[in-house]
Structure formats: structure tokens, C-alpha cells
Amino acid sequence: MNWEIKTVAMFASEALREGYLGAAGYIILGVVAIAGFLAVLGMVLIYAERKVAGHFQCRLGPMRVGWHGVLQTVADTIKLFLKEDIVPFQADKVLHILAPLFTLLGTLLVLAVVPFSPGMQVADVNIGVVYVTAVGGFGVLGILLGGWSSNNKWSLVGAMRAGAQIISYEVSATLALLVVVLFSGSLKLSDIILSQEQGWWIWRAPVVGLVGFVIFFIASTAEINRTPFDLPEGESELTAGFHTEYSGMRFAFFFLAEFINMFIISAIAATLYLGGWMPFHIGGLDGFNAVMDLLPPGAWFAGKTSFLIFVLMWFRWTFPRLRVDQLMRLEWKILLPIGFVNLIAAAFMVMFGWYYGN
Amino acid sequence: MDNQSLIAAVTAAANNIKLREKADRAAIEVPAEGLLALMQKLRDDAQFSFDMLCDHTVIDWLAEGTFEFVYQLYSMTHQHYLMVLTRVSRDNPTVPSVSSLWKIAEWQERECYDMFGALYDGHKDLRRLFLEDDWKGFPLRKDYKDDFMLERPQ
Amino acid sequence: MSVIVSSLEQRIRADNLKESPLSTQEYFVNMGPQHPSTHGVLRMVVKLDGETVREVIPVLGYIHRGIEKMGESFGYRQFVHMTDRIDYLSALINNWAVSMTVEKAAKIELNDRIQIIRTIMAELQRIQSHQLWWGVFGMDMGAFTPFLYGFRDREIITDIFEETIGARLTMNYIQPGGLMFDIHPNFQKRVKDFLKYFKPKLEEYETLLSGNVILQERVRNVGIMDAKTAISIGATGPVLRASGVKHDLRKLDPYGVYDKVDFDVPVGRIGDCWDRYWVRIEEIKQSMRIVEQLIDNIPEGKTMLMKPAVKIKLPEGTYYSQVETPRGVLGVFVVSDGKDKPYRIHLRTPNFNNIWSITEMSSNWRLGDLVAMLSSLDVVVPDIDR
């Protein structure tokens, strides 16, 4: 089956030949689509998180606002937007205001390359994986600035924890990404998806793919500060960590970024290891593959991503939190060596062609 | 050890020990001067080995003009209790601190300072425990008055 | 003799912020009085070097209500109400402590019905308290789900209490001379139902939290307190038992019908956070054992042996009795001058002593460990301040 990749960026560049106006129209469309998607996705994820948490904990979660509480997050968002925005006394006002924007910006930019389906992607950058890693690392800047500028020791401790944690775990996450880059031979996200037509990398590259996936998932969970790695917020230790002094809309930005990040890492993990929007194919079984193609690619992507998001929520509502030195030990003494060995093994496997569907 | 033999052993161990009447467990009264030496002996002597200062408090006998310091001792090895009481004048309520013997005494004595204004000689860090540092007066004294206190109709 | 009185400010400035060899600066943070893991209004001034805790200075008194002073103008029966409010998670056992002091002083012999009901109630209260502690411990470790599981199961016992007593938290049920009311006709059945329900749930507790590798990493060998330190601090209850001292008043100085029932006292090995955790979980099992033995054997009899409207007068003297609450030894010290009000009433509360162990064990551990240690001590702040 031939997949035709169409992105907003392509439409824009085509339109550019005829005039600036059309191109600008497409760019605005892309930005609005991402912004709208961001807001809606944030609300849906928050609602989902609360419902999932509720059912894990033998309760119902939000039930009052709207049918089964579906409007709860809308109400919460309105409340957060109307709340007074407090900047603490003697805080670094400019940085304090900018910090949440930085965090949200990092998230927003990554969203631009996420391939939702063959015809739904804002830009298909030819260095997609590098772009994701680079821009995704931008979020930590906001957290560091937010903690630093709040003029609060708890915030500062939280921010320093976040800095150390995110930078450390980025190493492992990148190493795990490289495994797939090696196998697919491309940095472009659409190429990586197309390379999985005969099967997903998680099982096409025996063991190495699975190990890479697990490392990537763990490291990314740490990168987005979710339980069991939620030390920067560490509610019971640091009251609220880096966003202790934030209120109203700026707090909402941090909050939103956190939830969108959860979507992003699930989407990236799904794209790289679970075939993205590619239906579940087994090389050689054409009949089976045809049945699988009945579901549209967008649904495959949504399904895989939601499953991974659910796993993240599952983590959050089950595990206790690690201690700060254990967190570093896990990265530098366990994940990183395994990641390196895995990468070298992957290189050999690519060299000798030891993987399925070769 | 049961109460009788405990009291007999304690009275044999030091001078000036009086038996406290009207107490529901073994209780002795000692003068404040010999308190620290007696406590040291009670803690270290193998036949007593009172390794736990269970409780320490003060009773304000306003009519007699004295403070009575109460130490409840407990021995983990022998499982016996002893109550040691000592009286000092209300005007200068100073007793030697036993915080060098039992760590918890440091804080129990701070509480008694906080509530009664009892002073402990040799205490390293005597300051108020519950109330603010600039609180006026000592609330558990019987003659304590402040602006917010409600007088019960008698 | 000269005695120097200092203040908190002087205390903090006393060893001023030195430059350490690596020239990282040490700094003070206020943990509390409004902090999620101090369970109320406990304030600790923490000296930190980066993430490492150098010193902890507890600052108390944020919920000091002067219960001892109030006690001097209350009758004995009225004072029982106050004890609900010191350690609100063991209200019934606190009631029992005061009642026992009064009964011993007034030389009242209680019948078996009163004693057995009191013992069952106390053990249910102990289970309830430990359930709540378990949930809160999970929450302090960063897992929120145990909190709700703990509360869910605690709710059932609370309902049982409510049916008989009419109150859920401040119960004031055990009175000098007996009980406030007789038990509800449903009581025995519901308690048996609860035991049947809770046994599998306790296993769920273990699979959810106890066996979790992260929790094990967090609590094993963290916050070790040896038996000698624990004793010199006067720690009691699970905190002391976790350090390996088999001290339980229910065995050593039995009250109620504890001498007639069969139960074990779980003892820890090294006194780390895990031992304190394990001891409490085992105590839930032992409490269930006690309730199981008693629940079918409640004899008939009166439930109040003193006339309720008459003021209690105790003969002159000093009285001290103590009970084992879920957190340790609660002692009630009464000085009576023969009137209907105590001349001086003093409460030796378990948490007052237990909390100081945090100053002994916390130095050079991480901030996260401090939270774990504090949580493993199971402090109830009103009980410290009184």
C-alpha cells in the first residue's frame, strides 16, 4: 500500500509559488490547528486523568459538571483564567512571567512535527528526531527559570531537581531514539513510520527494539516529571516544587504543558516503536494486512497513543516516588549503560542485517 | 522489683529520701540539691537501670509557695516505675537539668519552662517550646492572668 | 546558679551558616506549619545543604490549646471530652486512659461486659488509626492511591462506631465508670462482616505498597534509630518496637481484658522506616485477632456503674495510669486535692516523645527521606501540642 504524506507545510510551500497570501493562510491554519488541538487535548487529558485516577482509587472522579463530569475541566479552565495572577514579592518579575510561556512553547513546537496520520501533520522536518529532542529539551528552561525567579527556596530546590533530572534522562531517551534511527536509516518521522510497514520496530528488531522502547518510555516519563519521577513537583516534599508560587493562568500553562508532554512522549514512542499511524502489519500476510488497513491510520495512531497515555497514568496512580539520589543512580548506573550496549547491539544488527523483514 | 523492695533499695542508695504518701505507685521525695546525683545513680545502677524518663512535669502548689517537679522513671529491663518528686520555692524555681542523662528531658524541661517558668541549671538550649519567644508570663501557673482569660463563675 | 534562656532566632543563629569544604552554602527552610507532609501544623526548621538535611529543629505550639490548663477547671467527666481532641485518631483509647485513672483512684471494679466492649472498641480504633496511617504514608511517598484505599476501609469502622456511638471522630464513649451507651444490636454482626471484608484488603495493601520495589528502596535502612536512642528519647509504641524493644503495655501492664486474649507483639529488627511500617501492618493483624476472639464473647451486664449526674471526687493524692494508643504510651497524671476538679492534670502524650526522634535520625539524609521518616513516625500534631 502506498501512503501519501501530506503536511500543512507542503501545502504552504505549494501556495507560496502563487503568492504570499495563500502560504500565510496555511501557516495560520497550522498554528490555529495546533493551538486549538493543544487546548482541547489538554482538557481531554486532564479529564481522562481524573477519571482514570478515580476508577483506580475505587471512586468515580468528577461527576457533577455535565454528563459524568465532562465539563469539569472546562469549568476548571475558566476558573484558572479568571484567577488573580500573583507575582511574589521580590520575585524576578520578567522571568517569572516568561517561564510558563517557555515551557508551553517547547511543548507546542514539538507538536508541530507529530504525525497524526498520513494527511495530518503540520511539518515533516527531515531531521524530525533531532528536532523533537532539541525542542523537547526547551521545556526545562521554563521550569528552571520559574523555580529560580519565584524567590522561594522550595521552588528553587524543585527547579534544580528538574534541571538535573531532565538533562540526565534526556541522554538515555536520545540513545533509545537512535536505535530506531539506525534501523530505519532516517531522521524523518514519516520515513520512520513508512519503514515499519512490514512490522513495528519494537518486535522487528528482536530484543533491541523492546529494550529501546522500555528505556525510552522510562526516560521520557522522567523527562516530563511524572510519577514515579515527579521529584521537581514532589508534592509531599516540596509543597509544589517549581510552580509553588504560580497561580491562575500561569499555573495553568505549566499544568497544560505537563499534560501535553504526556501526549507527546506517547506519540513519539508510538511513532518510533509502534509504527505511528501505520496499521498492525505482519510482513508477508497480505490478507491479514488488508483487514488491518480497514481501520483508518488516524485511529491506529490515536489507539496506540491513548494506550501509552493510559500506561503513564497507570504508573502515576500506582507507584511511589523515587528519592533524588536513587533517581540519578537509575539513570547513570542502570539506564545509560544498558542504553549504550543496546545501541551498539543495534548497530551490529543493522550492519549484519539481523532483523525481521530484512 | 515490686514497689516495696524498690523503695527500700532506693532509700538505701541515698540520703534525705522521703517516701511520698498518697501516690498510686512507688514515689519518693528528694531535695533539689541531690537530684542530679540520685538520678545518675538511678539510671546507671544495674539494680534500678531507669533508662527511660517517661514523663516530667511540674505541679504549682500556690498555697505553699512551692513548685513540685515530678519525674516519672521507667526501666525497660526491670519494668518498674518510680516517681521522683522534688520541691523548690516558687520565687527561684531552679533545679539541675537532667537532660544530660535522658535526651528527652531537654524538651520536657523546655515545656516546663514554657508553662511554669521553671529554670533548669545546665540545660543547653532553654527556650519556650509551645508559646512564642516573647510571650508574657507562664500559663500553667495557678496565678497566671492575661487579658483574654475567661473567669469561671464560682 | 544562672540559667540562660534563649530564643528560636538565637538557636538558628547559634551555628551560623558556615561555608562547607565544597563551598556550597547551607540554608534554612521552614517545613511547615503549612506543608503537605507535616500532617497538620507542625513546623520544622530544616537546615539543608543542597538536598541533604543537616539539622532539623522542630518548632511546636501551632495547635497548642492549653488542654492541661482547661483541665484544671473541668470535672473529670468533662475532661474526657478534651482527650478526644489531643490525638483524634485514637479518641476512644484516650477516653479510656482518663477513665482508667479515675476508676483506679475511685476504686471502681468494672464488669466484664464493659471491659470487653472497651477492648474491642480500642482495637477497632487501633486498626482504624493504622489504616489511615498506611494511606498517608503512601501519599507521603508519592503514591496517592493508598491514601484513598486506606480511607475507604477506615470508613467502614467509622460507620460501625457511628452506629453505636453517634460520633465518628471525637467519640467520648468510654466514660469513668463504664460506657456512654450500650452497643448497637448490629454491632457484633457488622464487626464480623468487617473482619471478613478486611482480610483480603490487607493483602491488597501489601501487594500495592509493601512489595513495591521503589517503596522498599525508599524505606529500607533509612532513618535507623537504635534501641538505646529510642529509649532515651522516651519513644513508645510502634516507633520503639520497630527498634527491637518488646514494649507493649497491653502485655506488660495489662488493662481491659488484654491479659485474657491471645496476641503477639511484633518487633522490628533495626529500627528503620521499613520496620516501623512492618510493625504497624502486623499490628493490624494482631488487633484483628484480638477482636475476633472477643466479638462473640460479650457477656451480659450493666454498661455504666457510676451515677452519671454526680460529680466525681477523687481522694487526695497523685494518680498516674497509662494505656497503649496506636502511637505509643499515653499517660494521664492527675493530682487531686480532694475536690471535684483535678488540681493538676498532665498528659504524657506519645507523639511528644516520638517526634523528637526525627532530630536524632534525620541528619545527612535527603529531603525525601525526612518526609519518609516523619511519616513513619505517624505523628498527630495536636497530640504533641495538647
C-alpha Rg of chain C (nearest Å): 22 Å
Average residue pLDDT of chain B = 82
CATH class category of chain B: Alpha Beta
Number of DSSP strand runs of chain C: 8
Describe it for me?
The complex is a heterotrimer of chains A (358), B (154) and C (386). Chain A has 358 residues and is mainly alpha-helical. Chain A has one domain (74-352). In chain A, 68% of the residues lie in helices and 0% in strands. In chain A, helix 2 (20-56) crosses helix 3, helix 4 (93-111) packs antiparallel against helix 6 and helix 7 (153-184) packs parallel to helix 15. With 154 residues, chain B is α/β, with parallel strands linked by helices. Chain B has one domain (3-121): 2-Layer Sandwich (Beta Polymerase, domain 2), CATH 3.30.460. Chain B is built from three helices and seven strands. Chain B has helices at 3-13, 35-44, 105-116, and strands spanning 18-19, 27-29, 52-61, 66-74, 81-89, 94-96, 119-121. In chain B, the strands form two sheets. A five-stranded mixed sheet of chain B has the order 1-2-5-4-3, with helices on one face. In chain B, helix 3 links the parallel strand 6 (94-96) and strand 7. Chain B is globular, with a radius of gyration of 16 Å. Chain C has two domains: 8-59, no CATH class; 69-385, Cytochrome-c3 Hydrogenase, chain B, CATH 1.10.645. Chain C is globular, with a radius of gyration of 22 Å. In chain C, the strands form three sheets. Chain C has a three-stranded antiparallel sheet with strand order 1-2-3, with no helix packed on it. Chain C has a three-stranded antiparallel sheet with strand order 6-7-8. In chain C, strands 4-5 form a two-stranded antiparallel sheet. In chain C, helix 3 runs antiparallel to helix 4 (91-106) and helix 7 packs antiparallel against helix 12. The model of chain C has no long low-confidence stretch (mean pLDDT 85). In chain C, strand 4 and strand 5 form a beta hairpin. Chains in contact: A-C, B-C. At the A-C interface, helix 7, helix 11 and helix 15 of A face helix 5, helix 6, helix 8 and helix 15 of C.
